[in-house]
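pipeline/complex-builder :: batch 7 item 3
reading input block
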Amino acid sequence: NAGVTQTPKFQVLKTGQSMTLQCAQDMNHEYMSWYRQDPGMGLRLIHYSVGAGITDQGEVPNGYNVSRSTTEDFPLRLLSAAPSQTSVYFCASRPHGTNTEAFFGQGTRLTVV
Amino acid sequence: RKEVEQDPGPFNVPEGATVAFNCTYSNSASQSFFWYRQDCRKEPKLLMSVYSSGNEDGRFTAQLNRASQYISLLIRDSKLSDSATYLCVVNIGPGGYNKLIFGAGTRLAVHP
């Protein structure tokens, strides 16, 4: 079972470059989210989606865009990378419901130089 | 103030010890609660949900106090394999969408 697949696993960008982090899930989950994790900060919500065509901002959305054209895919775009965006990024999906389990991808380690 | 606060630790305990982690949350509209476990450089995984009546899963016991907005996790008979970071997670949101907010985590190190 693939679950949640994130690509790439590692990436180095130069300041000002743009890129897209890919996230795909094969569990037909309605909800998908992007988090970033920095030392001592825990996971912070960047953007989330409750279904295809619907997205909303989380706690730290600045500098990131998302779209959800299909149930399966939820890419995260960095428009103009900054060193402050150096982090580990996790994509998660979960089915509808208040007490359902979130499944995470393996993470993308991004360094912006 | 952070929405979900945890003692970062680390908690260094010997095998066989009992250890307890606490977590407080600020949003009284929070609907559901979880503990996730994260191993070093890995993705978080669900350890257990936390129910109002308290719940137990083997050596792990979770408690919720809605009045005090407080969640706890008790680990009995600690194993080396319990060494990890434990994330307190709160589900915030009306009705449908469940916005999961994570605490910064409490690190546990179990030694022989």
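note: The mean pLDDT of chain B is 92.
queue -> next item
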